[in-house]
Amino acid sequence: MYRHSANSVHQLELSRSTSVNMAELSDRDLIILVQNQHHLAFQQLVKRNQSFIRAYLYQLAPDSSERADLEQEVLLRIWRFIGSLKDPAKFKAWLRQITSNVFYDSLRKRSALKVVSLDESYNEDEESTSRDIADSSAVPEDVMQREELLSEIESALSKLPDQFRTSLILREMHGLSYEEIAKLTHSEKGTVKSRVSRARDKVQNSMSSYLKDCA
Known about the structure:
Layout: H1 6-15, H2 27-35, H3 39-60, H4 67-81, H5 91-109, E1 114-116, E2 133-135, H6 143-158, H7 162-173, H8 178-185, H9 189-206, H10 208-214
Antiparallel strand pairs: 1-2
Helix pairs in contact: 2-3, 3-4, 3-5, 4-5, 7-9, 8-9
């Protein structure tokens, strides 16, 4: 829990009075109050930052019909984890990370997981050429084999470092361009290309035994 200054403690005491207008409090004081389970302060903090959350989710998933659900999950995580925020001045960056995590988690949990075609050769310079992605609902025909394949892919993805896994998921499963991924992950385009390429290789190597047995 954040260690409050004398002034912040004073603000906390004042806020418990119905005469205090939450809209007049600073973001810092609102955050401190929310860390002390103050619901009115939380409502005001959400009101101030809801447009940012919605805009960032739209940037992450412009065509998604699940943004309202993602927004609710973001708000839930703010309430649950804001106690871990030691410096209120870093709230915006913390909120951005929370929102990104919610989005990335939603990608991994999609039931209609799309399968990356691992056997196709790939040329890094062919930016406009999209790799073949097969819908897991169509192949393989046998349900057990399909579930086994998905399990192997998920296992391979879980072994990747976070930045590599995120870049590969956004590229192969969400269809984003390298420029879009670079913008979302605050990275250079060349860095994203390298991460995606290396992530593909790692997934390929991780699944090599399984793929060989299926051949």
